[in-house]
Amino acid sequence: MRVMALDIGDVRCGIAISDPAGRVASPVCVLPAKEVESGASSFQRVLEDWEPEELLFGLPLTMSGEEGPQAAHVKQIASVIQRSTGLPAHFADERLSSKEAKRELREAGYDEKRMRGKVDMVAAAIFLQSWLDSQQ
Questions:
Q1: What is the tens place of the pLDDT at every residue in 27-61?
Q2: Residue 93 CA from chain centroid, whole number
Q3: C-alpha to C-alpha distance for 95 and 85, rounded to whole angstroms
Q4: DSSP, res 93
Q5: Fewer CB within 10 Å: N-end or C-end of the chain?
Q6: Which value, to the nearest 10 degrees, does the dihedral of the CA atoms of residues 1, 118, 30, 124 take?
Q7: CB atoms inside a 10 Å sphere around CB 93
Q8: How many other C-beta atoms can be found within 10 angstroms of the C-beta atom of residue 31?
Q9: pTM of the entire structure?
Q10: Distance between alpha carbon 136 and the CA centroid of its chain, in Å?
């Protein structure tokens, strides 16, 4: 089961994908959030290239684990994307995934400027991997 994770932000959307067996998550790309939400050709190409069977949306919970206004916004966008793709959708706690992504990129030698376009897709891979592990 190939799962595509979407880390939806106000400006960018990080995308990660699992292997066909649903065991390993890998970062794919970052697209403008508006293109993903509107189903633009750039997002359609990613869907066609990777052929996911399910979608996983990062849910930005508060540090106390509650859903706030940003989580409601993500759920609204997720609903639009899910309807347009027809794929089953799930949500995963994405708390601290961006912070962990920045730490991993710094360890790999990236400075703030070079990591700017990569953080969102690495964060998506982090919460996707955590979700995949929980499904085993």
A1: 999 999 999 999 999 999 999 999 999 999 999 98
A2: 11
A3: 26
A4: E
A5: C
A6: 30
A7: 15
A8: 21
A9: 0.93
A10: 20
